[in-house]
Design goal:
Blueprint: H1 2-45, H2 50-55, E1 83-86, E2 92-96, E3 111-113, H3 127-133, E4 138-143, E5 148-152, H4 158-175, H5 192-195, E6 197-199, H6 214-233, E7 236-244, E8 249-256, H7 264-279, E9 285-288, H8 292-312
Parallel strand pairs: 8-9
Antiparallel strand pairs: 1-2, 2-5, 3-4, 3-6, 4-5, 7-8
Length: 331
């Protein structure tokens, strides 16, 4: 009888232990969750010490700050990341706020502000551009479709002005304020070019015009599809100012970061001119249309270029990279 009873007791003990195991597991799991909650609350209310960070290294990542900017006007529906991008022009920085910059219905693909007065003048005043040009050392603000290019003078260090510029752009984008306003120009107001505000009411010079000749149409199409994207990537834009049938000369104007870039001449000659001449046999050359300030800058650059040629020899070629280029000439 005793041999028959022992198996029965053993089976009952095993069944009892098995019935209690899930409950024990639930208790352990509940305790673990409660402990994790206490740890998370503790870390959120008090800074982690060196010992605490060693005990719970995975919780630290939950409290790291993210560089995410959320606009107040969006009510949590969208997040904005503002990126900063260098340009070939060392005095210009490109800011990409992942937010439309130009107002809808604007005929021009850009707006450029060259003076504090231009930011207040019609037809497109900009409070953000006014604040940016009020920063010491900032001399030019350029708006593209979805980017902002800010240009400083050569004496100013980016380390001194970049934090303030970034803060102003961030505040404007996150507050939901209108980047560019549109007001009606009065009869007494000066023309756009005289106020230092370029773009605005001007039509896109690369746009289709039924009066264009076949050659001009091909030039515009090539500029629009192949050249403008590269120029905008560098924080600028390009205008078509005309084509001289007799000489085969294409007249262009660079904007934004490319406007005051030392390598703009090289860009026109080695990039734009060579591409236009390759695809369109009627094109024989490219000329950059300059205003007075830009002409002075080009003359100074030519003097500098001649000085470098004297150091490197007559065989030195204009370029921006590589051994033997003008910018690698020894002092």
């Amino acid at each position: 009888m005793s041999s028959a009873v022992r198996p029965t007791k053993a089976i009952r003990a095993a069944l009892k232990a098995a019935s209690q195991r899930p409950r024990a597991q639930r208790i352990i799991q509940s305790s673990c969750r409660a402990y994790q909650s206490r740890c998370a609350y503790h870390n959120a209310s008090t800074p982690l010490t060196s010992s605490a960070s060693q005990q719970r290294p995975r919780l630290q990542a939950l409290h790291q700050s993210l560089r995410v900017i959320q606009p107040a006007a969006a009510s949590g529906s969208r997040m904005i990341f503002i990126q900063t991008q260098d340009t070939p022009n060392k005095d210009a920085l490109k800011f990409l706020p992942n937010h439309p910059i130009l107002p809808q219905g604007l005929s021009s693909p850009y707006l450029e502000y060259l003076s504090p007065r231009s930011t207040l003048a019609p037809p497109h005043p900009s409070p953000l551009a006014a604040r940016l040009l009020n920063v010491d050392g900032i001399k030019n603000v350029f708006y593209g479709p979805d980017f902002i290019t800010v240009t400083k003078d050569t004496e100013t260090n980016w380390a001194h002005v970049k934090p303030e510029v970034f803060s102003l752009i961030t505040e404007a984008v996150t507050s939901g304020e209108q980047i560019v306003n549109t007001i009606e120009r009065k009869s007494g107001d000066g023309a756009t070019g005289t106020t230092g505000q370029d773009g605005g009411n001007e039509a896109d010079t690369l746009g289709y015009n039924e009066e264009d000749s076949e050659v001009v149409g091909m030039i515009k199409e090539l500029l629009e599809t192949r050249i403008r994207p590269a120029i905008q990537e560098d924080g600028g834009d390009i205008e078509f100012r005309g084509f001289e049938t007799g000489t085969g000369n294409v007249m262009l104007k660079l904007r934004g970061a490319c406007r005051t870039c030392d390598s703009s001449t090289v860009t026109l000659r080695n990039g734009i001119e060579s591409m236009l001449m390759h695809y369109i046999e009627e094109v024989k050359g490219v000329t950059q249309v300059l205003n007075e300030e830009e002409e002075i800058a080009i003359k100074e650059f030519e003097k500098f270029e001649e000085k470098l040629r004297q150091q490197k020899g007559p065989d030195a070629t204009a370029g921006t990279i590589g051994k033997g280029s003008l910018d690698r000439a020894e002092a």
